[in-house]
Structure formats: C-alpha cells, structure tokens
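Table S2 (text version). Query chain:
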Amino acid sequence: MTKAATTDAAIAARTDEIITGLIGLEGPLLPILHALQEEWGHVPAAALPRIADRLNLTKAEVHGVMSFYHDFRSKPAGTHVVKICRAEACQSMGSDHLTEAAEKALGIGMHGTTADGKVTLEPVYCLGLCACGPSAMVDGKVVGRVDEARLHKIIEEIRA
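Corresponding structure-token output:
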C-alpha cells in the first residue's frame, strides 16, 4: 500500500492510470479492484463510478463484485489485519469462541478497526488449514491451532 493522495481528484487520476494499464486484460475488473486496494489499502468509493464508466458496466455491477469478495475493503484497514477463519471446519474446532475473544480483547466487532487504527478484525472463509483449526491470518501470515491464549499473545505483539 502506498501513501497516495486521497483527494477525489487524485483518486480519479490514479484510478484512470490503473484502469488504462489493466483494461486490456480479459476480465479486467478484479485486477483493477486489487490494484486500487493495493494503492490505498481499500477501494475508494470515488473510484467505483470511474471503473463502471471505463469498463461499460453499471455501478451496481461494480459494487456487486466489490461486495461479493470479502477481501475488498471500502474503508482503510488498520496497520495490522487479523482474520479469523469462519468456515465449518474451524467453527467445529472453536472459531466462534475465538472470534468472541478477539472482539472482546480488541473492543471491536468483525470488520471493525480499533480506535487507534492499529488492528482490523475480519472474517475469512477457509485458509486451507482445516486440519489445524481454528486458524487465523495475521498480516498475511497463516497461523494454525489458534486458541485463546495464542490469540492474546498475537494481539499483544501487534499492539506493542
């Protein structure tokens, strides 16, 4: 993620550059959304109408794709992102309890960011560690067999 300017004019200009670079791909919408999120840490709302216009899609179609995929954010994430697996295998191993413990420890709900902007908590639906559940992802690193004690240690480390 870069420290790009976030005025509507800057967003429009950079969005146009990204679209121009990717529009030749087959099915360019997802790569464009990924590139925008990489640029700003989220996909700015001001970019969606530009994408729709350039790709000859409706705003609803762009919004539908954006909201369908859980990894796209409409607001910036915290410095650290903790994702807890909510798929069935991890649920059977206690991820519901783990989610409650994380929400309590951080003082936020799922999709929330702590007031200091340090930690964002998100659900994820399968990390491929079904035999090592419950699992989590912390800043892109997958962690298996997460219990409440390990969760608290992870939170302490990233909040330090």
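Notes on Table S2: Residues 8-22 form the longest helix (15 residues). Strands lie at 80-85, 112-113, 119-124, 136-138, 141-143.
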